[in-house]
Amino acid sequence: MQIYTFKTDRELDEAGAGIVISLLRSVPGASLGLATGQTPVGVYEELVKAYRKGHISFKKVNTYNLDEYRGVGKKDPRSFYAFMHQHLFQHIDLPEEQIHIPDGEAEDVILECNRYDALLGNVRQLDLQILGIGLNGHIGFNEPNFRLSYGTHAVILSEETRRVNSSFFHSLEEVPEQAITMGVGAIMKAKKILFIARGEKKAEIVHRALTGPITTECPASLLQLHPDVIVLLDEGAGKLI
Ligand code: GLP
């Protein structure tokens, strides 16, 4: 695990984008695992800048998002699809059919999870998975539990996660109670993981995840078992490391 701490958001964003850019230069048809949340937004902005300067193209790239809320359609501004569209997809040359994200509106959730796993199975291994961390140590929406799931599955979100994510909604009541998430299997199978955390409020959980016991009660602690993780932290999130 390589851990880097940055003084400014800009340096962190450039470093994160730099990793994606060098991947796309050497593997133009890379498969990218993408995350939502505030954490990767600056990295996406840097990628858009690089694309606009003609430094990279996403024409051959396939993207696989970690998760989606249940009961929220692609066109709903609260969906993770809309979030990705706003921050990345609409600005780049990534063909729509190469964007993959669980369908939050699927009537049969088990079928939808199987469909997503089949897609991920075809890829076998994501070239790079971008990952943030929830305040409770979740990755994707793999919440702390006595056991974790390997494959894509439906989850009931914890009260804490819904409260944290309510900043994207008008009120806590509006935050969906369930989501579909990639399991820890696909995440851990990625060739490389780009793990990013910002802010002092994440310092304790980052410390637990990177140096504490490996436990399903802190899903991000599984990253200690991965052979190629790059950790990018700002000074706040890296305070205890
Ligand atoms: C959500 C997402 C995670 C993300 C986490 C942290 O719950 N499912 O993938 O890492 O939030 O979000 P933020 O980056 O806004 O702190």
Automatic annotation (TrEMBL):
- Its domain of life reads Bacteria
Q: Could you say which EC number(s) this protein's record lists?
A: 3.5.99.6
Which pathway does UniProt place it in?
A: Amino-sugar metabolism; N-acetylneuraminate degradation; D-fructose 6-phosphate from N-acetylneuraminate: step 5/5
Which molecular function GO terms apply here? glucosamine-6-phosphate deaminase activity
| Listed InterPro entries | Glc/Gal-6P_isomerase (IPR006148), GlcN6P_deaminase-like (IPR052960), Glucosamine6P_isomerase (IPR004547), NagB/RpiA_transferase-like (IPR037171)
Q: Can you state which reaction this protein catalyses?
A: alpha-D-glucosamine 6-phosphate + H2O = beta-D-fructose 6-phosphate + NH4(+)
Query: Where along the chain is the active site annotated?
Result: 67 (proton acceptor), 136 (for ring-opening step), 138 (proton acceptor), 143 (for ring-opening step)
What exactly does this protein do? Catalyzes the reversible isomerization-deamination of glucosamine 6-phosphate (GlcN6P) to form fructose 6-phosphate (Fru6P) and ammonium ion.
What is the official name of this protein in its record? Answer: Glucosamine-6-phosphate deaminase
**Lineage of this protein's species?**
Bacteria, Bacillati, Bacillota, Bacilli, Bacillales
